[in-house]
Task: inverse folding
């Protein structure tokens, strides 16, 4: 195969390898004892340890959305409670999941790719395999499952903190009272909105962790390769988030 | 017994191994030698199924390891202990946990039994006190010895050593050579040593297999190696003698006379 052919077929080759990796991970799901301990470790690392940064980002997103909405509403004929009607659904439908996704693409995606990439180039993954251990089941399954389980939890945290941040800023800056904000938020609340957000965050959790695991697991080329895998994991995770966001909105809304 | 039959492997169109056939007998110590980049480590990785050949077979104890389900391949791999070139210790664990890892994963031993076993393995490699240290706190030679302790924890029938002395000073290299020889004698394991260090080869091996220009160029006993007039092989051996600064055979004799720790 010529160099040009190799270059042209590389995306397909990567996609095939990604699907094969996921299918191997799926068939390893039954070996729970293999990844039980790692699963709880990863749930703490991916989920619990991300709460402070997610809460911070969500609080500021909610606050800024409130200020900007108030800034744009200049007509006296529009009730102030509309600010709550805009901020709350924005957090629940879009910002809660997407802000969480982008932050975790950097925080979690980069960490997973760097960790697995270093294990690959220092032959630690080969050592696991050589021992007779299923390295995909041991390393990848717990990370992807932890992403699927913990991203919705982080999404819920982001929604509560984001809406809370918006409410506090609205109240402190005198745009509207807490009661007005809540009334506005409840007026246009649709029960499907948080369900949509939960679905979205689950998909993002899967996309970020699986892509980052793929990049890290197949790293080659020493320290430079690890750096490249880490960057690619973050970039690809962000791209997947954008596509998944649009596709889910088109399909479910 | 391990049989390699007509093995071919290439990466991105470049042939790395061609038509390699080799028998590794039970209980022997065989050195796979050749220049850096000659495909020794690639051959080593085929022996435990870490790489799949383009053509050919690797048969371990009658099982074609490339023709069995993954679960069965993992069973076969448990017969092996592998010492990787850089040690490949898990850097998230300390030395004790590294050696305990295969015992905790593959046996039903209690924590007390695991601790006793780890202690024994660390004593075999003369590092009884490094248990609480992380790999980053250990020197290169110590890392390899801890990795060797981990490799022997499950009492494997085959031990593969990938460049066990590369990057080590001559004294530490001798210690590693002595360990390899001692383990082969004490545990009666089959040892496969991938190296370009002729000093090691002459110290520890019963037989050598020389890979040159993608093919298995020469195989024979160490006596055959001394007597060989093969030009390529002699060139390789002589280059090594020059490197270690004295005739390899002399150096080997000296190292063998050292007692095991």
Result:
């Amino acid at each position: 195969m010529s160099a040009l052919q190799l270059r042209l077929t590389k995306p397909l080759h990567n996609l095939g390898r990604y699907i094969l990796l996921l299918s191997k991970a799926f068939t390893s799901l039954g070996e729970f004892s293999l990844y039980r301990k790692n699963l709880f470790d990863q749930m703490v690392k991916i989920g619990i340890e991300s709460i402070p940064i997610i809460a911070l980002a969500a609080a500021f997103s909610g606050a800024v959305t409130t200020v900007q909405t108030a800034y744009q509403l200049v007509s006296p004929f529009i009730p102030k409670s509309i600010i709550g009607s805009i901020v709350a659904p924005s957090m629940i439908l879009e910002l809660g999941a997407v802000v969480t996704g982008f932050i975790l693409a950097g925080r979690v995606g980069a960490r997973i790719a760097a960790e697995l990439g270093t294990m690959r180039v220092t032959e630690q993954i080969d050592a696991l395999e050589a021992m007779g251990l299923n390295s995909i089941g041991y390393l990848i399954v717990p990370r992807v499952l932890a992403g699927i389980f913990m991203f919705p939890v982080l999404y819920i945290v982001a929604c509560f903190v984001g809406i809370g941040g918006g409410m506090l800023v609205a109240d402190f800056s005198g745009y509207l009272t807490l009661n007005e904000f809540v009334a506005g938020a409840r007026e246009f609340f649709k029960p499907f909105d948080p369900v949509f957000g939960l679905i979205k965050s689950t998909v993002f959790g899967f996309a970020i962790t699986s892509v980052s695991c793929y990049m890290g697991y197949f790293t080659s080329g020493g320290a430079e390769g690890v750096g490249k895998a880490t960057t690619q994991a973050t970039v690809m995770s962000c791209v997947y988030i954008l596509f998944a966001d649009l596709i889910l909105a088109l399909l479910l809304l | 017994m391990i049989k390699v039959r007509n093995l071919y492997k290439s990466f991105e169109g470049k042939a790395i191994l061609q038509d390699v056939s080799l028998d590794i007998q039970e209980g022997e110590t065989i050195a796979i030698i050749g220049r850096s980049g000659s495909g020794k480590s690639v051959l080593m990785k085929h022996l435990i199924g870490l790489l799949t050949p383009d053509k050919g077979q690797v048969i371990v104890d009658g099982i074609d390891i490339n023709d069995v389900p993954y679960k069965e391949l993992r069973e076969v791999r448990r017969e092996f202990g592998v010492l990787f070139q850089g040690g490949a210790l898990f850097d998230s664990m300390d030395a004790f946990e590294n050696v305990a890892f295969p015992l905790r994963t593959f046996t039903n031993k209690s924590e007390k039994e695991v601790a006793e076993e780890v202690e024994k393995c660390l004593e075999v490699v003369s590092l009884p006190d490094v248990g609480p240290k992380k790999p980053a706190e250990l020197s290169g030679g110590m890392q390899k010895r801890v990795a060797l302790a981990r490799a022997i924890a499950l009492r494997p029938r085959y031990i593969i050593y990938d460049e066990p002395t590369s990057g080590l000073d001559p004294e530490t290299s001798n210690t590693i050579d002595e360990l390899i020889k001692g383990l082969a004698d004490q545990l009666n394991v089959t040892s496969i040593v991938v190296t370009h260090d002729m000093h090691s080869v002459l110290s520890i091996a019963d037989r050598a297999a020389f890979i040159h220009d993608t093919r298995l160029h020469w195989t024979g006993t160490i006596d055959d190696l001394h007597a060989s007039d093969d030009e390529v092989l002699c060139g390789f051996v002589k280059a090594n003698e020059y490197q270690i600064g004295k005739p390899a055979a002399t150096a080997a004799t000296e190292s063998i006379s050292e007692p095991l720790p």
